[in-house]
């Protein structure tokens, strides 16, 4: 049987990893400034993570959501503590797309409306309502296109209000910082305007924190910089450091009822053990502070390279924009210098999404390699 060939693959086979390094089947070491697509938060094979998951699987790997699972209750409590999102409710699932799917479905149940407002260049996942809310017609199949989504520009509050006036929009969904779209972020005025309009028109504000959340920007959630209180916050990626886990935080004004949402695997014992290890380590190793410090250092280094036209993003969700396509540069960084980085929809943007444990010396290695490639 062959694999369904949907991914263009680099010819590298990682077999082990440790902190910010990945090792292939020939023993070569790679510096991971990509974090397996913003997933590795506390570093590869972190001892607390390995211990938590190993001990949990030896005790109980899985049981259904029909029984008490104190690990879910503990995860909700730890999430409240680390995020400061007091009194929100937690629903757990398995991936980013699923988190947004549940967020949009819940918004529709809650408001009894069906349209969605999303933004140009957005990415919210590849399933039903999530992919329909993604601004990329190439990945929207005819079966998904029935969902009515209005795509608007950042900063255009007048168009948002106009779209809300028909009173048929259940949710506005927005990545606080766009990921694959190219690291754009709207202004605080825009976020606060969206919040106000959502209240006025009985529409739910969903912040997609799947890539930018869980400490990556130096705040636990990126929206917190804008002083807003979203109705729903979606999370995944860094939440499990590679273990498939996602979730939504739901504002206390939204009520649950039996059967409203549900999943077989979501919130299973192993996923909770993984995510609890992530939160514990972010706190104990001060990884949000580290993200801020290393980001500042990265910006300083980037400023000394004339070929970089813009540095985008914040914390450890960064993009270097050049005035040429970066595909060749990215390949050379991998194959000549053994450094993983990411790409974006904007072909001139090189993305940097390292584990939050990264140190200055790793940044130095990257900039040395970059300078060599650019000279
Ligand atoms: C902002 C954002 N939302 C949603 C998703 C979808 O997550 P998943 O691939 O886990 O379904 C992604 C994945 O890249 C993302 O970056």
Question: What is the compact description of this entry?
Answer:
This is Acetylornithine aminotransferase. This protein is α/β, with parallel strands linked by helices and about 375 residues long.
Describe the structure.
This protein has helices at 35-38, 47-59, 70-83, 96-111, 128-132, 157-164, 188-200, 269-284, 287-303, 327-335, 360-374; strands at 14-18, 21-24, 29-32, 89-93, 115-119, 149-152, 169-175, 204-208, 232-235, 246-250, 308-314, 317-322, 339-340, 349-352. With 375 residues, the chain is of the alpha/beta class. It has two domains: 14-46 and 286-374, Aspartate Aminotransferase, domain 1; 47-285, Aspartate Aminotransferase, domain 2. A seven-stranded mixed β-sheet has the order 4-10-9-8-7-5-6, sandwiched between helices. β7 (169-175), α7 and β8 form a beta-alpha-beta unit. The protein is globular. The mean pLDDT is 98. The chain binds pyridoxal-5'-phosphate. Residues 95-97, 100, 123-125, 175, 179, 208, 210-211, 236 line the site of pyridoxal-5'-phosphate (PLP).
H/E element sequence: EEEHHHEHEHEHEHEEEHHEEHEEH
Give a count of the beta strands, DSSP E runs of length 2 or more: 14
Please give the largest β-sheet: 7 strands, mixed
Helix content: 25-40%
Give the total of domains.
Answer: 2
The best one-word shape is globular
Low-confidence stretches: none
Which fold does the CATH topology of the largest domain refer to?
Answer: Aspartate Aminotransferase, domain 2
Distance between the termini: 46 Å
The helix/strand class is alpha/beta
Q: How much is the radius of gyration in Å?
A: 20 Å
- The appropriate CATH architecture of the largest domain is 3-Layer(aba) Sandwich
What is the number of helices?
11
CATH homology superfamily of the largest domain: Type I PLP-dependent aspartate aminotransferase-like (Major domain)
